[in-house]
């Protein structure tokens, strides 16, 4: 069993290394020293407490987005609606944050919960459409992204109910009250701790609870799940709901811990980074944490990297794309490092679910 | 029937083939010879190494030791491509066809005649038609494969191999998926192919088929060849003993028993199939405590839908299913809670999760209740203890309870299901094709278990396409035809012929309405 665990870590690690090497070549070709660039990135990401704080802050919503995708995947579902769910979570937590005056120990959890629950409704809707009408969740969650984006745009627009009266022409919500702000402890964001706790809870749920067993069974063989007396409809709705809750919670943490208000279009693309993270973590909830920290560190370190060299910030996206490419194509990695194919290496098939109504 | 057996070069000869996998010697110095025009039966229990052996011959695996000679020349095929080029064809148990393509397209796929980069469809269909007539394998080249019955799809597979010039044909358990009629036809086709010079390796569990069609038999047991005998000198008993290594009781011992009260009552049941057709239409049937009622029928006459309605998986359109005093209304878990065990027809699709361990599969239907879970938290020590006990009690051959079920042989997979389902305190056991694709030793065991359930006072509903099984186990035989129970018979006073006739439509002269029977007339001429 130990050997097996080692192999499961090996491929993602190799993918990261190969991604960095490929990025290094690109930096070299564009006329810079890759070592200087990566040195700058490393220092910018982990050089001091502030840097670590920045990295963890960047990593927090990524953990949540990664968990959302990874959990849905366990039920054989591809939640591509993280972006919309995150926007709902962010905006509704901001509303609880600025609208109500409550003591912090109540205010913060309430705002987080409301954000998560409203978002989970959006996911559950996609799950319900899938289970009862056969609408593929990839299509419905993409469409619902637009619904969520436009709804939240309107909420804080000049004509919307949550517009900031001091914002002039700006479309944004008022600042949340101090009692709703997620504090920093010694420069480190507490939001990250919430995300880690969420990862542990999801890991436990999947591997130790009967609900997790039901989710895994529906994901692995829905016919056998029905045979065993599991309601595939119930699990599909529930799994999409929980997945969306996690994405919404990510948006809420970001709002309460970093932005402190809701502005439309903040962190565009964050929901999609969740897919990268989930793949890098091979859909293991605990592995989502290091995967998110890695991507977060690249983002956090990019500023210093630019300051030290002439490397364009876009190069970070290219490196991330390389990493994702190598994760998604394990056979390429094996070919490059001449690794022998292992039977224990279960591929994550993104095509699964298509056509299987 | 073996004119070239002693003279001439063998078509294929394997000497001392050994193949090791981590922790197991799958083949241990196995020899095998097939001459042109000869049918060799390859017999063995599940896991005896039959598949490994033919995969080496077909080039999928490389032997660790030993040599393979094709027409006297040593062969070092490193991949099926080379084996095919040298005239070896294999028909796998799970068909390798592209369902939406036509028969002709499937057959020429990968070896197409093209014109300007496009498939020459006319030429392909002509070639296929010519080939199918030459070998007497009648198919319509323009039919779409997914619309064809299994027996015809198998012909397409065989034609695919012949199209590529196969002189040695490997058939891996070809009859496992066929109805009795289709099986008879396949055996006829095999004889015709052999008389035109094709050598055939025929893998099967079914001794009757081996005796009916082969010239010689090679028997494997636990990776070793335990004998090669001329079929003429073999009997069912001698082959079974060679396979299992002990004498096997082929006739089930069953004591007379007086049935009790009605446990299952099906009354005027109507159920739709996946294509929305009313495939069970007015079926009425009762099963009492302490009796086995066998449902005989040609596949596709509503058996699957009947069973799925009884177990709550499929919704009931009309009529009723009553178990004890509860009306069933489509809720699988509630039905199970009434004390119903269900061995499904398609074990890999319905009854197991292939990438789960044996331990998890053993609690697939009970994972949520004590002792396997408490307040939603799984109790792995109880799960493991349960698996350890059942693996022992039901003789599941596995290295460990953590082994994934997908890697077990067919017989052992079925034993996992039987163990899970029959270890409960049941009132009703629904067993659908419980021994399909299962080796002789396991069949005997599964039959014993079903009889034991009956003797404990369970009501047993057995659905099987094997008339032997129906006759040897049933206390009463129900014949199903086009979704209705057309006869209730006593196995003591009825004959196979009578049941066979009723299965095919009861002597009424309209065989046409039943696609399976009509399309597969004895000489195959009904098709086309």
Write a brief caption for the model.
The complex is a heterodimer of chains A (357) and B (528). Chain A is mostly helical and 357 residues long.
Biggest interface, chains and residues, is: A-B, 18 and 23 residues
Mean pLDDT metric of chain B: 86
Biggest beta sheet summary of chain A? 2 strands, antiparallel
Report the strand count of chain B: 24
- What is the strand arrangement across the widest sheet of chain B? 6-9-10-3-11-12
Total of helices of chain B:
18
**What spatial form of chain A do the alpha-carbon principal axes imply?**
globular
Quaternary organisation: heterodimer
**Name given to the CATH architecture of the largest domain in chain B:** 3-Layer(aba) Sandwich
CATH class of the largest domain in chain B: Alpha Beta
Write down the CATH topology of the largest domain in chain B.
Rossmann fold
Low-confidence stretches of chain A: 341-357
Mean pLDDT of chain A: 87
Assign the CATH superfamily of the largest domain in chain B.
P-loop containing nucleotide triphosphate hydrolases
Briefly note the structural class of the backbone of chain B.
alpha/beta
What does this structure look like?
The complex is a heterodimer of chains A (357) and B (528). By secondary structure, chain A is mostly helical. Chain A has a domain at 57-296. Helix content of chain A is 71%, strand content 1%. Chain A has helices spanning 2-29, 34-46, 49-74, 82-99, 104-133, 137-155, 190-208, 210-220, 222-227, 232-259, 270-280, 288-308, 314-328, 330-337; strands spanning 184-185, 188-189. In chain A, α4 (82-99) crosses α10 (232-259) and α7 (190-208) crosses α8. The longest helix of chain A has 30 residues, at 104-133. Chain B is an alpha/beta fold and 528 residues long. Chain B has three domains: 1-76 and 167-248, Rossmann fold, CATH 3.40.50; 88-166, no CATH class; 262-339 and 425-519, P-loop containing nucleotide triphosphate hydrolases (Rossmann fold, 3-Layer(aba) Sandwich), CATH 3.40.50. In chain B, the strands form six sheets. In chain B, strands 6-9-10-3-11-12 form a six-stranded mixed beta sheet, with helices on both faces. In chain B, strands 18-21-22-15-23-24 form a six-stranded mixed beta sheet, sandwiched between helices. Chain B has a four-stranded antiparallel beta sheet with strand order 2-1-4-5, covered by helices on one side. In chain B, α14 runs parallel beside α15 (440-455). Classes of the chains: A mainly alpha (357), B alpha/beta (528). Chains A and B meet through α8 and α9 of A and α10, α11 and β20 of B.
